[in-house]
Amino acid sequence: MKRAMPGGCRCSISFVGLTYHCGMADRASDARINLRPLRLRAMMTQEELALKAGLGTRTIRDIETGKVRPQPRTLRLLIEALNLDEDDRALLTGASDQPAAASRNVPPVTLPSGTTVFTGRSELLTRLDESFDEASCRLTVLTGVGGIGKTMLALHWGHRSGDQFPGGQIYIDLRGFSSSGAVMEPAEAARQLLGSMGVEPPRIPADTDALFTFYRSVIGSECRLLVLDNARDAAQVRPLLPNSSQVHTVVISRNQLIGLAASHGAKIIEIGAFDRAESSAFLERQLGKARLAAEPASVERILTACAGLPLALAIIGAKASTRPDHALSAIADELEAARLDALAVDEASVDLRAVFSWSYRELDAATARTFRLLGLHPGPAMSVSAVAGLAGISASHARTYLGRLCRVNLLSEPAPGRYVLHDLLRAYAAELATSEESAEERRRAVLRMTDHYVLTSRDAALRLNPSRRTLAPPPPTSIEPEHIEDSAAAVAWFRAEYQSIRLIAEHAAAAGLHAHTCHLAWNLRDFLHQQGHWRFMASIHAAALQAAETLDDRAMTAYAHRNIGVALTRLRQFDAAETHLLESLALSRELGDHEGTGTTEVYLASLAEAAGRFDAALEHARSALRSAGNERGKAMAFNALAWTSILVGAYADAVEYGRQALEIWEQAGSKAGTANILANIGRAHHGLDRLDEALEYLRRSLAVTVELGSRYLEAEVLAMIGDVHHDGDRPDEARESWRAAEAIYRALGHPEAERLSAKLTPA
Q: Rounded to 10 degrees, what is the CA torsion of 468, 472, 476, 482?
């Protein structure tokens, strides 16, 4: 007989389940049965039974919880109300002979107390609620790295949801990851769980098969919550899973236990780090609002160092609370100086290094080595190819080892093929690399990683601009670069790896990898220019300038000067920009480099235009055309002439120069050149008041620009389209284009955003 219970539980009351719950193999051998199973079998609530028996609801509740022994008169009333037969009467009357503290009849609750500073996690709590409400899902796996707060979340949810489990809440630590290293066997876990449910040891079968059969019968007899904490793997968990729909099981593990999703339909919930607001709230609960408000800058430093790991925040909060007179700035200093040392405590269960080590020591040798070397990668995310280069292994092996690290939550894969190492795990991996890898092996690993980024960024640069002149081949290496299919893939790769490349370029310069530094600057140039990353463009070419001078590479020196000048022009540092461009011009002429000379003249024209010296800009553009050593140089010169002609109002000349440049760029297949000159032709037609022609060219430019992924030029073209619409008396279309341009400029941190904002603000 079944009765629907709150939250979707189904209570199935059978004679077998009843006797097992009471720890009896034979009902005649023990009369310690409470009232509740008989009431549930009759499909009655406590209130309904009290009304029918003429008793108080509290009396029914006290009898069921074992607080009181039923008196003879009360028993007679209950027997009549429940319409019990002789056998059931014997069961019930036997209860009156037992001591009042018959605790076995009280639903077992072995769930440990939760933390008093629990905060946040509202989305995860909702997901747990939803998993319980789903009739088809009775198994949920909480997975995540050690210290992420899996158990804390499960306990908080379990206590909050206690009324949903009238049969009790049972908890066990399976010791899958612990300082002792003694993993609990499933049979031992089953015996402990049976004990938690009131089963005496003599009643528990010795035979393993009989044990698990008995265990499942007992645990499945009530609507319960079962929490299996610290599980090692699916094999440890499977024998302990109830086969009753009444029991909701939550498994907690550092491993993902994907096998349980396949075999038992488990719902797997990944537990990630706290966001900034949750981290701040957690620390506030420990230290108080006033203390945090007194040192907001130090609090931000602490939050950054703890990187959203609840255990780290708990350790710091505990240390700070025991030192109320210490400034938080001192704790922040300690964290930044030696992060893992600052988080060390005497107790292994909450010491961060120890917690991480329990997962690390379970890795095979090859996967463990890969994990250690990941600590040498400076970027926020890594690809399979980057890790293969770093470790000096094949991509297939790298993929295998990364998968293993993800399964034990020492690594995450937030997007396909992109792997992220938590900051504190990175610090732990770096410590291991220092202690377990020789200095020479670490040096070789970093060199292999740098080779990977040099080779792949070179291929990506040539996909972006196939007509670029190339440098001498990069340093010889056995590393295979990542495959870049086309220009769109090149832009995607540069965007994904931008932060990593910045850090690797800085390392290469600091480590004296001069050739690598020069190649990285050359490879990144077009992407940085297209995306408007002017400051980094200036800094990486400044590093390349020092490297080139050390190598006595005069051509690279001229190239570096030129691109520093381009970046500084965009940053409106005109005097410094001119100094670098003139250095580049002089070197290019000395080297007989006609293309370099012409290109530098083009950039001097851009500088003069930006500084408001239009006549000088036109002269530099004409000089660029005279100096052009090839078709590409001519196209750049024609483009510069078109632009400077626009500035002096010679719009018809600008259209003609633009058409000549466009023909060369299209024949060369240069999308970047094509996009730029189409925009200038559009500008020129706008100046001639040919608005339809202007829109046609600007829209063509925009299409190529979007394909290129050049955000800076995209913003420029959108702003121009808005201007044309405005002059064509189409205010709605104008505002739409200006808004789109403003959004891009703001994302780039460009001051042009303020000018557009003024246009969009009503006078």
A: 0
Q: How far apart are CA 501 and CA 456, in angstroms?
A: 11
- Strand 139-143: give its sheet, edge to edge: 169-173, 225-231, 248-253, 139-143, 267-270
Residue 434 clears pLDDT 50, i.e. is over it: yes
CA angle in degrees (0–180, nearest 5) for 377-382-383: 135
C-alpha atoms less than 13 angstroms from C-alpha of 421 in its C-beta half-sphere: 25
Please report which residue ranges of 375-394 form alpha helices under DSSP H: 384-391
pTM (2 decimals)?
0.69
Convert 287-327 into a string of H (helix), E (strand) and C (coil). HCHHHHHHCHHHHHHHHHHHCCCHHHHHHHHHHHHCCCCCC
DSSP-derived pairing of the beta strands 267-270 and 139-143? parallel
Residue 643 CB neighbour total at 10 angstroms: 25
Q: Which range has the worst mean pLDDT, 66-75, 107-116, 214-223, 668-677? A: 66-75
β-strand partners of 141: 251, 268
Residue matched to tokens 């044309």: 724
Q: For residue 142, give the 3-state DSSP assignment.
A: strand
Which run of H or of E encompasses 114?
A: none
- Of the candidates 234, 264, 248, 241, the residue with the CA atom closest to the CA atom of residue 407: 234
Strand, coil or helix: 549: helix
Residues comprising the chain, all counted: 763
CA nearest 215: which of 252, 183, 247, 176? 247
Bridge partners (DSSP) of residue 253 are 143, 231
Residue whose C-alpha is closest to residue 19's, from 37, 7, 6 = 37
- DSSP string across 118-132: ----HHHHHHHHHHH
Q: Is-contact 131 140, C-beta < 8 A? A: yes
Q: What tens digit of pLDDT does each residue of 9-62 get?
A: 433 322 222 222 333 223 322 223 457 777 777 778 888 888 888 777 777 877
pLDDT at position 600 is 94
- CA pair distance 214, 531, nearest whole angstrom: 67
Give Cβ neighbours of residue 763 (< 8 Å, ≥ 6 apart).
none
Instruction: Report pLDDT for 60.
Output: 81
Does residue 678 contact residue 706 with C-beta atoms inside 8 Å?
no
Q: How many CA atoms lie within 13 A of 647 on its CB side?
A: 21
Which of 146, 152, 150 is closest to 117 using CA atoms? Answer: 152
Residue 541 reports pLDDT greater than 60: yes
Contact 450, 516 (CB under 8 A): yes
Nearest to 224 by CA among 138, 141, 347, 142: 138
Q: What is the pLDDT of residues 371-412, one digit of tens each?
A: 999 999 998 899 999 999 999 999 999 999 999 999 888 898
Matching residue, tokens 């002269």:
619
Q: Which residues contact 554 (CB under 8 A, 6 or more apart)?
A: 548, 587, 590, 591
Backbone φ and ψ for 11, nearest 5 degrees, come out as -95, 115
Q: What is the 3-state secondary structure (H, E, C) of 66-108?
A: CCCCCCHHHHHHHHHHHCCCHHHHHHHHHHCCCCCCCHHHCCC
Q: Give the chain's end-to-end CA distance (angstroms, integer).
A: 77
Query: For residue 418, how far is the Cα from the chain centroid?
Result: 10
Alpha carbon distance 491, 495 (integer Å): 6
